[in-house]
Specification:
alpha/beta; five-stranded parallel beta sheet; Rossmann fold
């Protein structure tokens, strides 16, 4: 079994999710996988986004976690598939801002009835 963290590589809030997941993995003596789902066609990143990606990749490495990048349009379904492949029993994910009439990624993931625990990490 293992622990996972779902992040957007260019997110300024990814550090909290990475830290929470890696701590849990360390407590359990299990591997930690940091999963990022990227769209099949990506636009160029700004220099600020590139810096955030580099920073987050450095955090993943510093926490002895393994980075997994999955290309897909449907983030919740991709997270579910990758988590099953890597035997994740607990998936940490950041809380997304609510959008009018749209479910957040954690809400969509829960509706898929995953066979693992989901822990939502708050920003503050």
């Amino acid at each position: 079994m293992s622990v996972g963290a779902a992040i957007a590589l260019e997110s300024p809030h990814a550090a909290r999710v990475i830290a929470a997941a890696s701590r849990r993995a360390e407590e359990r003596g299990e591997p930690c996988f940091v999963i990022s789902v990227v769209p099949p066609v990506t636009s160029e990143r700004t220099s600020e986004e590139e810096e955030l990606v580099a920073h987050n990749v450095q955090l993943i490495t510093a926490r002895n976690a393994s980075q997994v990048v999955q290309e897909a349009d449907d983030v919740p379904s991709a997270l579910l598939a990758v988590a099953k492949i890597f035997g994740i029993r607990t998936l940490f994910i950041g809380n997304a801002r609510r959008r009018l009439l749209r479910r957040t990624v954690p809400e969509k993931l829960l509706r898929l009835a995953p066979p693992f625990e989901i822990v939502v990490v708050t920003r503050d």
